[in-house]
Design goal:
heterotrimer, A alpha/beta (236), B mainly alpha (297), C mainly alpha (361), B: 297 residues, mainly alpha, ABC transporter involved in vitamin B12 uptake, BtuC, two-stranded antiparallel ribbon, 72% helix, globular, C: 361 residues, 15 helices, 70% helix
């Protein structure tokens, strides 16, 4: 469970997050909203790249904001980015192993854990293949493998399906949906693809201009008038 | 500690030097804000201009023509570089763009040593007619060149600030500093604005080169690396504020020359820009700890 | 002959260990006999500056940190070595190690506050610091056998040469000594690159936020790179001292740091062999031109053009695994070799472009 209370982020006169209070219960939760709503800013707060002006985040009982950013991964925060990709010059195995190296787990279980994560992501390639030889869809799966290895507690997925064709999105959705049951972690998915969000997330929250405007079961939220207006208002 | 009267002449020379550093710094900042390029070759093109002026003077050309040639050469090379390499590197990181100008610096440096070699021990000098006229304040002699140097710094800084604030071209440059892509979609002729920035910077480089060749030395190495003093000022201003660049440049120039009569430190006075920049940067960066991740939707 | 389809350029950039070993043996044993003393001296310098290029390559190519003052660091290493060589009777190898360690400590101390700065600012601060070191050196001078902390006696008429190790007193012997130390440094870097720090550096270079999100303490690993680069450069300084016997501050000017960056970029900041190429460009070519009576200024111009060429054609970042111009050269050589052996691409099949063969579909 993640409890966010009164989270406010200001940057150069713009309030990116405005007193956001929300509780993520369990499973995979969606976080949607028009461009500039503050979704990536929220992830940046969780990752430790941005210091909020006010508010607290308690994750599974731990105060997340007092932890140094690189320590959060050790604690169990995992994140995929919109544009940053897996490291091209290393192999799939090394990419995933690197995350494991810096997690709580030791060397003994490393090889098995990494192979398990790669299998969970359903990559279907030789683990020693260099990432540079893989296609976009497979690279996203490498990132997913990195996100689930080493007993994560909180998995943040930032538009994992961006730029992927439909067939690959389907497989990705399946994998994302199973992350909580496979790892015990809580996953938060940010995306614009509503079918992806519907397929993976039981609950969804909606941000607009840094404010929370709706949250609840995904189907209901996606039909909510306020949410539709928020999207249409920007979509001109 | 020597008596104050020992320092007095150095206040004048320091201010003059600071004035030139200021106009150099302003040129660097404006170009950086408009194009994202930190023009490390600024000193080298100024040196090229100054040496060209010297050669023309040796060939008997009248003074005004040599000065015009100096500015023209610096401006032409700068504009040429900007036109040739600006677009190719436009989307790259500022670090890459700056290192590219190092390439230009090397080319110019090699060229200058080929054409105006110093290996035979020749020392050249450039004098301006204003070196011989001036006035005195109390015990201190002030040459007109020094006055021009400081005045040029003040006037050009003020003019640039005004230009950026109140003219259409200036506003376009400020917009581009924010976001080139968006500015382009607003219908601003991005390439033309950039060309104007390159040209302006080149002209300032020529003027600075001419003045520094007179005030300091007409030597390719010295003039090329004198840009470091302006860089110090520009860094303290975080490549943003023109006013801060001006102030910092004056401080760098003043402090450097004021250390001359202090016997224990005099040998180290060339460290002034480095020390000031290093301290300034480290102090100013104390609070920016956070890592920028690329902001998306 | 095997088809060109499976040509992998990185294998050319990093030849098989067997080929490397043979090459190194040749260099160590045969090369000094084949060259005049003038060129033996030159090749010793190549070994020294290959090490500095290696250090710069670690910073620029592996981590993405640009140092505009690496020659000043070299001067520090040389200074420490000279001081110890004059003041103590310690074995040369030990002094080289000490020079490396002192330089490493200095480099790390400077790196700590400096690493808070981002790319461009960090590069500029290295320029500033190097400039500061240059000024101090000009005043303090290199040790020349005098007493006192600085070991410099300005009034000495006959300056003693810096000594060499007893087992490597002659020029060819010292060349071998330099090469062996260089090999050790390259091995040290290789050991880093293939293990945890190398992976962390790859992650940092790709994206610092992503590296942080993966749990990598980026400050620690960047500092580690600084320490490694400073150590290697300090060691190179120690070898340089004995190579040229006399050290002067004008031998380490600011423009040399810039030229060094240029050749590192041209040789390929990422690959280890690139550092050797850089060393050759930096020391062998000028030596060659000097011998032929051609001005070294042409090289400066060439290096400037080289920088521009590398940067405008490199796909992203400052380091490319094998720069395009060298890649084209390899391709040309391979095609020539192919033609010599009488093989040709099959009819209707275009000669595979090795650069695109690996590209992601």
């Amino acid at each position: 469970m993640i409890e966010v209370d009164g989270l406010t982020v200001r940057y150069g006169g713009v309030t990116s997050l405005d007193a956001m209070s929300l509780t993520f219960e369990r499973g995979t939760c969606g976080l949607i909203g028009p461009n500039g709503a503050g979704k990536t800013t929220f992830f940046n707060v969780l990752s430790g790249f941005v210091r909020p002006a006010a508010g607290t985040v308690r994750a599974f009982g731990t105060d997340l904001l007092t932890m140094a950013h690189y320590r959060r991964a050790r604690w169990g925060v995992r994140r995929t980015f919109q544009t940053e990709q897996a490291i091209e010059e290393l192999s799939v195995f090394d990419n995933v192993a690197m995350v494991h190296e810096h997690s709580r787990l030791g060397r003994a279980s490393r090889r098995q854990d990494v192979l398990d994560a790669i299998e969970f992501a359903g990559l279907g390639t030789d683990p020693d293949a260099e990432v540079r030889t893989l296609g976009a869809g497979q690279r996203r799966l490498v990132e997913v493998a990195r996100a689930v290895v080493g007993q994560p507690r909180l998995v943040l997925l930032d538009e994992p399906a961006a730029g992927l064709p439909d067939e690959e999105t389907g497989h990705l959705a399946e994998v994302i949906r199973r992350i909580p049951e496979h790892t015990g972690a809580l996953a938060i998915l940010v995306d614009h693809d509503m079918s992806l969000v519907s397929a993976c997330c039981a609950t969804t929250a909606v941000l607009d201009f840094g404010k929370l405007i709706a949250s609840g079961p995904t189907a209901a939220v996606l039909r909510d008038d306020a949410v539709i207006r928020a999207y249409l208002g920007v979509d001109s | 500690m020597p008596p104050w009267s020992n320092f007095e002449p150095f206040v004048v020379s320091g201010l003059a030097l600071g004035g030139v550093y200021a106009l150099s710094g302003v040129g660097l900042v404006v170009l950086y804000r408009a194009t994202g390029v930190l023009y490390l070759a600024f000193g080298a093109v100024g040196a090229l201009g100054a040496l060209t002026a010297w050669s023309l003077a040796q060939a008997g050309a009248p003074g005004w023509l040599t000065w015009l040639a100096c500015v023209a050469v610096a401006a032409a090379v700068t504009l040429g570089y900007g036109t040739l390499f600006g677009p190719a590197l436009a989307k790259r990181d500022p670090l890459v763009k700056a290192v590219a100008t190092i390439g230009l610096t090397l080319v110019l440096y090699g060229l200058m040593d080929l054409l105006w070699t110093t290996s035979g021990g020749q020392a050249r000098s450039l004098t301006l007619p204003t070196d011989n006229s001036g006035f005195t304040i109390g015990q201190i002699t002030v040459t007109d060149t020094q006055v021009i140097a400081l005045a040029a710094g003040v006037v050009l800084t003020a003019a640039t600030a005004t230009f950026l604030r109140f003219t259409k071209l200036g506003t376009a440059m400020r917009a581009m500093a924010n976001d080139r892509e968006i500015t382009a979609t607003l219908g601003v002729p991005v390439r033309r604005v950039e060309a104007a920035a390159w040209l302006g910077c080149g002209i300032l480089a020529g003027i600075a080169g001419l003045l520094l060749a007179d005030l300091v030395a007409l030597d390719a190495t010295t003039l090329t690396f004198l840009v470091i003093s302006s860089l110090a000022a520009v860094l303290i201003a975080r490549l943003r504020s023109i006013a801060l660049t001006f102030a910092a440049a004056l401080v760098v120039g003043l402090l450097h020359d004021l250390l001359t009569p202090v016997v224990s430190l005099s040998n180290y006075r060339d460290m002034t820009p480095f020390v000031i920049a290093a301290i300034g940067l480290l102090v100013l960066s104390r609070h920016r700890v956070m890592v920028q991740s690329r902001e998306g939707a | 002959m095997r088809r060109l389809k499976s040509l992998q350029f990185k294998h050319l950039a990093r030849p098989k260990p067997a080929i490397t070993a043979v090459l190194l043996l040749f260099v160590l044993l045969a090369l000094p006999q084949l060259m005049s003393l003038y060129y033996v001296d030159t090749m010793t310098q190549v070994a020294v500056y290959s090490m500095v290029a290696l250090a710069l390559g670690v910073l620029v190519g592996r981590v993405g940190l640009v140092s505009l003052g690496q020659v000043a660091v070299l001067a520090v290493g040389a200074w420490v070595a000279a001081r110890l060589l004059f003041a103590t009777g310690q074995p040369y190898l030990l002094i080289v190690l000490e020079a490396g360690l002192v330089t490493m400590i200095a480099g790390t101390a400077i790196g700590l506050p400096a690493l808070r700065l981002r790319g461009l600012y960090l590069a500029l601060i290295t320029l500033m610091l190097a400039g500061g070191i240059t000024v101090v050196l000009a005043t303090v001078n290199f040790p020349n056998g005098g007493h006192g902390f600085l070991g410099y006696n300005g009034s000495l008429v006959h300056i003693p040469p810096i000594r060499r190790p007893s087992f490597a007193a002659s020029d060819p012997a010292y060349f071998r000594f330099a090469v062996i130390i260089a090999i050790a440094m390259f091995a040290l870097v290789l050991a880093h690159v293939k293990t945890r720090p190398g992976r962390a550096w790859a992650a940092i270079r790709q994206s610092e936020p992503a590296a942080l999100a993966a749990g990598i303490n980026t400050t620690l690993y960047k500092l580690w790179a600084f320490a490694l680069a400073s150590f290697i450069t300090g060691v190179a300084g120690g070898v340089l001292a004995g190579a040229i016997h006399y050290l002067y501050s004008i031998g380490f000017p600011t423009q040399d740091s810039i030229t060094l960056l240029a050749v590192v970029l041209m040789g390929g900041a990422y690959s280890l062999w690139g550092a050797v190429v850089a060393g050759l460009l930096y020391q062998f070519l000028p030596s060659l031109l000097n011998n032929w009576g051609v001005s070294a200024d042409w090289l400066t111009i060439l290096f400037g053009i080289g920088v521009l060429q590398v940067l405008t054609t490199a796909p992203a970042g400052l380091a490319d695994q094998v720069p395009r111009d060298l890649a084209r050269l390899y391709r040309l050589l391979y095609r020539l070799l192919g033609r010599l052996r009488g093989s040709r691409p099959r009819e209707g099949e275009p000669a595979p472009d090795p650069e695109t063969a690996e590209r992601v579909p």
